[in-house]
Each structure stands twice: as C-alpha cells, then as structure tokens.
Amino acid sequence: MGRARRARKIAAKAAYGGGVTAAGAAASAAAAYGILRAEAQIARRVVGTPFDDTPDDSGTYGHGFGDPVHLLVIGDSSARGMGVDTKWQTVGSIVSVAVAALTGRPVQLTNVSVVGAESTDLDGQIDLALEQVPEPDVALIMVGANDITHRLSRSTSVRHLAMAVHRLREVGAEVVVGTCPDLGTVRPLPQPLRAVARRYSRDLAAAQTVAVVEEGGRTVSLGDLIGPDFDERPTVMFSKDQFHPSPAGYARAASALLPSVLDALGHATPDAGHVPDRRRGESVGPVSETAVRAVRDPGSEVSGTDVHGSQVGHRGRWAVLRRRRRQPMPDAGEAQAEQVDEAPSDHEQPGEDSDRSA
C-alpha cells in the first residue's frame, strides 16, 4: 500500500474515531511494535546525556509599533526547545525575533508546550493557552515524535491533532504545524528500529498533513531536515543526548517554519501567491498525494487551495505544495539587544506521484 493511501486511511479512521483494521495489518503492526520495544531498550543505553530543564522563552520580542502579534507555541520537547542553552535558541524565540524584525510589530510569545507531550495532550495545552491569550493570531504546533516512541495509535494521534487545529481555527487563529520529524535520522537507534521508526514517522507526518489541511491549517514538513547535515556534522546539528536537535538544528527548523508563519499572518514572503512552479517541484493535487511529496521534501509547506473554484476533487481536498526559500535569521546578538520584556491554475493529475515505497 502506498504512503498516500495509508495517509488517507489513517486520517479517515481518525475522523470517524475508529474502524476495522485487517487482521494482517494488525499482526504486522504488533510485530513492528514488538521490534520497537526490544530495540528501544538498546537505544536507551546508547542515547547520550539527558537534559534537566528547558528555558522559558515566553515574553515580548521586538520594539515595533502597533498591536503585538500573539504567537502561541504548542507541542512537545521540540517546541519547548530541549537541547538549547538559552531561550534565544528555541524555535519559538527565533521565529518571534524574525517576525518582529520583518513585520515591524512586537511579538508576544506564549509557549505552553511540554517535554514528553503527545498529541493527546494538545487539548490541555490549548486550554491553558487560551486562558492567557483568548484571541491568538497564529499558533505553531510541533508534535508527533513521542506519539511514535510511546506507541500511540496513529489514528488517535491524528484525531487529537485535528481537534486541536479545529479549536484554534474556531477562535480565529491561523495554524502552522511542523509535522512529525523522521526518527530514522537518530543515529544511536539501531536497525531494524531505525527503519521501523522512519516508516512510522513518515506515515504519521503524511496523515497529519491530510488532517491539518482539511481543518484549515497548513503544515511544514520537518522530516529529515537536519539529517544530511547530521551525517557531515553530527556534533553540530544534534545536542549532547544525540536525540534532540542542537541550537543549530532548531535554527534550521525555524528557518523552514518562518515563511509559513509570515504568510499566515498576511505578511507575504517573496514566493507567496505565485503559481506553483513545476521546475521547483511545486504542485497542486489531492492533499494525500501532496502530503507524500512533502514528506520526501523537508521544508515544504502544504496548504489548502481551490481548483477551478472548488476546494474538493474526486480524490479529496485540493492542496498546494510550495518549496519555501529559507528566510535569513536575524543575528542572535541583535535579537538580544532588541528584547523588550524578558518576562514570561494548473494542477497535477491525481496519483501522478504516489509513493509506493515503505
């Protein structure tokens, strides 16, 4: 079964809260998780020193005029910034500094993410966030890795993410989701654990994309964004525990997420709104097919679109994939000086690029 079809099935099962799974598929999943359990014991002995704490990056960034941009950060340890040395190195902080610099408005960052969180924890985080910021402008969600390592059902994972996006959209927030990273890039994980983790995380990322776009959000594929650099510079891109990104790794993720956050705020990036360029690998198609392309092309954004005035075709919601140009990050020293408050249409034919690999 191709990844696009699996993504559709996972998202559909999530939408309807269950479904009948074929016996063969269930047996295969059980076997795979058996491997994960056994090999995870080995992985725990290999992965390096854990971290005691994460910095609190909530606060106001920038000196701009006008009302502040209210940015929520929700999710797991990647959203929290586990592995960084200072609050200036988290994804939320980097994005906030950049948005403040590029829009000329201050950014009020509220980070309610929790280390170890799964998608099932998003509802509680949103409760806390909306108590502090009833009408956020944009929410950035990063979640999924713990759903894989904690063996959470993918349909359950996707259902809770979809509900989170729905809640945030109901209060008027734009939503950008950094999809599940490719855990196959974590080198301390032995085979066959690494291969199984890669397949499960990529399948989850594709299904997350389908669900998020159908709820009116947009996704950015994080995938193996820092994988190629890890091969060349492992001590630079990963932190000392060899699992979480280093400050350089988080900066790479932030540079991929920033254009989507800016566009969500109506502050268009240079390539926003252009006709998808096939020469750059951009495309319009059914969201499940577009999601698969995004999984294979880290840094790609997927969002809903219309084709000839219709949002839905015979193979589901139409979506557009864009290959974002990474925005330059403001210098960290300049960012620190800027701190105000340190307190807390043509389209592709459906099925043209279906992924038939594992």
Automatic annotation (TrEMBL):
Domain SGNH hydrolase-type esterase residues, every copy: 73-252
Sequence ranges of Basic residues compositional bias: 314-327
Region (Disordered): 268-358
Compositional bias segments (type: Basic and acidic residues): 344-358
Cited PANTHER family: SGNH HYDROLASE-TYPE ESTERASE DOMAIN-CONTAINING PROTEIN (PTHR30383:SF5), THIOESTERASE 1/PROTEASE 1/LYSOPHOSPHOLIPASE L1 (PTHR30383)
Protein name: GDSL family lipase
GO-annotated molecular function: phosphatidylcholine lysophospholipase activity
CDD domains: FeeA_FeeB_like
Signal peptide: 1-25
Keywords: Signal
